[in-house]
Design goal:
single chain; Rossmann fold; Alpha-Beta Plaits; 14 strands
Length: 347
């Protein structure tokens, strides 16, 4: 559905007009029809500029933008306008017109239709996003989540094939964020929408996306299915992102504070056990403890379901003869568990 090849977009520096800022630097990306694809990055990574290149709100300096096989860069203005109607977009700040009702905001893109057609279309969209009872309300009377539902309905007015979401949940509380993400998942199934999610929040990607790309300094530094990105991140920036969503990172704080929880006795070994494949489902802690006749004490745990499989792991302290601890570690590695030794009090 979306094919980006060698996209470059530069901006002139405000301080030095002769200096270029490489907002997007040679990015190639393919997003399949009907997918929910996340583009992740810290502030300034270039992700919002990249998503605006998809519908040419930002025209790339060079490269190719193909939507459903059509080269967007070669379209004439009238053709481009028509092509853009099939690409909906929602934003962090909703961009609703405050002087118009919910009904009027959603009806705004509907040109050339009769009053009855507009009425039926708007009401069906409001029902789709579960906000039918607010059609006569004004944006100032709505909550943040309700405003975003109106923005989604408006973005769907022209029956787009693609929905671009630029930090669409960043202004919302966690509970409302969850409801909006669930709505987007439902719309993806009902309408067959291809959804591109731009975010700096890994929780959003974890909740909704099937595949993702991580951006840094205008480039894509890592990409793949969401489970792999969360379970086995390769790039330091990606590891930092994943760490922000995991309780396992708290072990560093406990060590820094010299907490009694992490003080090892002679012979003990502390390790982080991380699931790196989607087929881990056995009770590995209790089994290894019995099989190798050692104690395995859980200090921290953070396990959840992402893309239908367990992601996360545990921080544990092994206690027992060193040869048996080593056998337990070998066993874990044979079961697709990455074992990272954090501290070792010696044999």
């Amino acid at each position: 559905m979306i094919e980006l090849e060698h996209i470059i977009k530069n901006f002139h520096s405000d301080k030095d007009k002769n200096k270029n800022i490489h907002a997007v630097n040679d990015v190639s990306l393919t997003i399949n029809d009907g997918d929910i694809y996340g583009i992740i990055g810290f502030s300034g990574a270039g992700k919002s500029t990249l998503v605006r290149c998809i519908n040419l709100l930002e025209r790339p300096d060079s490269g190719s933008v193909k939507i459903d096989g059509v080269e967007m860069m070669k379209l004439k203005p009238r053709e481009l306008y028509k092509a853009r109607t099939k690409i909906g977009m929602i934003f962090q700040q909703f961009n609703l017109m405050p002087s118009r009702t919910v009904f009027q905001n959603v009806a705004y893109p509907l040109k050339g239709m009769s009053k009855d057609e507009i009425k039926n279309k708007v009401r069906s969209l409001l029902e789709l996003v579960e906000i039918s009872d607010k059609e006569n309300a004004y944006p100032s009377e709505l909550s943040g989540g309700q405003k975003q539902r109106v923005a989604i309905a408006r973005a769907l007015a022209n029956d787009p094939k693609i929905l671009l979401c630029d930090e669409a949940t960043s202004a919302l509380d966690p509970q409302t964020t969850g409801s909006i993400l669930q709505l987007l998942k439902d719309l993806n199934k009902k309408l067959g929408l291809t959804i591109v999610v731009i975010t700096h929040e890994m929780e959003v990607v974890k909740h909704i996306c099937r595949k993702a790309a991580v951006m840094d300094a205008g480039r894509i530094i890592e990409r793949g299915d969401v489970f792999t990105i969360f379970s086995d991140p390769q790039h330091p920036v990606t590891r930092n992102f994943v760490r922000t969503t995991s309780n396992l990172s708290k072990i560093e704080t406990l060590l820094k504070d010299n907490s009694p929880m992490v003080k090892l006795k002679p012979g003990e070994l502390m390790a982080r056990l991380v699931y790196i494949h989607a087929d881990v489902s056995e009770p590995l802690i209790s089994f290894a403890s019995r099989a190798f006749d050692i104690e395995i004490n859980i200090i921290l745990a953070d396990v959840e379901i992402v893309a239908g499989a367990m992601v996360g792991g545990t921080v544990v302290i092994f206690n027992g003869p060193r040869d048996k601890i080593n056998k337990a570690i070998d066993y874990y590695r044979s079961k697709n568990i990455r074992v990272e030794v954090i501290q070792d009090a010696g044999a």
